[in-house]
Task: structure prediction
Amino acid sequence: MKVLLISNDAGGYAHHVEAPDNTTVQQMFERHVGAFHADSYLIRVNRQPAAADQVLRDGDRVSFTPQKIEGAA
Amino acid sequence: MQKTNRSNRVLRFSPFALAKLVYLRDIGPTEIGGFGISNADDLLLIEDIQLVRQTCSVTSVEFDDASVADFFDSQVDAGRQPEQFARVWVHTHPGASPSPSQTDEETFSRCFGGVDWAVMHILAEEGNTYTRARFNVGPGTDRRLRCRTILDCEFPGTDHDQWFEEYRDNVTIDDPFASRRSLTDRYDDTDWWQQPPTAADLWSDRLFEVGR
Result:
């Protein structure tokens, strides 16, 4: 199956990637980002927050985006 | 990215981008933050500044996580890659000092430590800037960058109305002296079916006149 992966990690992703059937969100994260540390990211599937064990389906849009971007003087 | 050492040491802003950043810095009483939108062929040339929903005080800015994700979605839908819209983190500081705080450094490491490269740009209220690039490939290194505005490029005209709308729609002011209750709580008592107030809801009509 193909999913649209959006992530800023490494060189950045914003394109369709191949994934085996029944791939979970956690497996996708570990494959493209690394060890699963979900607390550092907002993980969404089709623009909705997703659980680690959610199974992806063909055509899904998956995004890993940074959380708690904050600045202070 | 351009390969010459000279251009790699300078973060350049189009007049449009710089004017918008200065406008957004000055339109309200708080810090603001956003992402620099880079030229597709020259990633150290910033052509626009985009806000996300954020809660700001005089000395802090905190992005809304869902709004950051929405920003990524919208930018991808517009045909951009993350290196064009998510690598240059911009925010302002009050007063004269643009030096990054401990919070700034923690965010730069935590949120931008996994990307090949990223830039932190801080514009202080009095005009001083701090710009630093971090390269996370290989041994990794940090490098201070100069900041310049370039004039020999095509750029759109200013649009204060649109900029003010963007500010109004994204910036919520956290004023610790206004009330001990959250803005949302205060709002819930009266107009619970509407969205929490943004900056414009909380300010006087005089501000709108300034914004125009």
Chain B has a mean pLDDT of 87.
